[in-house]
Structures are given as C-alpha cells and as structure tokens.
Amino acid sequence: MERRRHRRVPAQVKSLLRANSHEVEGEALDLSLGGARFESSLEVQPGKRIAVKLIAPGDDTPILIEQARVQWTVDRTFGVRFVEVLPKELDELEQLIDECIALDEGKEA
What we know:
Layout: E1 9-19, E2 22-31, E3 35-40, E4 49-55, E5 63-74, E6 77-84, H1 87-108
Antiparallel strand pairs: 1-2, 1-4, 2-3, 3-6, 4-5, 5-6
C-alpha cells in the first residue's frame, strides 16, 4: 500500500547533507514535497535528524531544509522525511520538483 502523501519524482540534484557538524556531498535520486531519497557516504541510521541543502542547477542559493528525519537506509542510499520546511523553501522545492518533472517527461518523449 502506498503511504506517501506527495508525488515522488526522479531527480539528480546535487546535495549537501549534514549530521551533527559533519557535512558531506550527496545526490537526491528522487524528490517530493514530503521527503527525498539520497545517495551519499554520510553515515546515518533511521530516526537520525539531518539538515539537507538541495543545490538546484543554475541557482546560487541552495534550498535549505534544516529538519529532516532518516526513515530507512540501505548501503549508501537512504530516505528522509522533511519534518519542517519554511514557506520560502517550500516554494523553491515545488519549483525544483516541477523542473524535475519536466526533465523526466522530456526523456520519455
């Protein structure tokens, strides 16, 4: 049964992930308004809180999500649920997701 409330779209978005004071690069493999799946060397366990910076192509200012909780982890891939997203970041996240949808639909055509 599908438990997600938000549509998840394929993505390839460079990211910076921070747990405690340790920040490492990663890549968002898919995105939704409620969370994302990342590939990264950051060591996390389910329940761990992390901060996420999504670096949209061509945008100088990353989308910062200070409150994300790791839901699951397999090898170097893990899923997070966005716990708190500020309105400005939510608008930018919606725009980024729209761009990912357009790119994905362009590949299918």
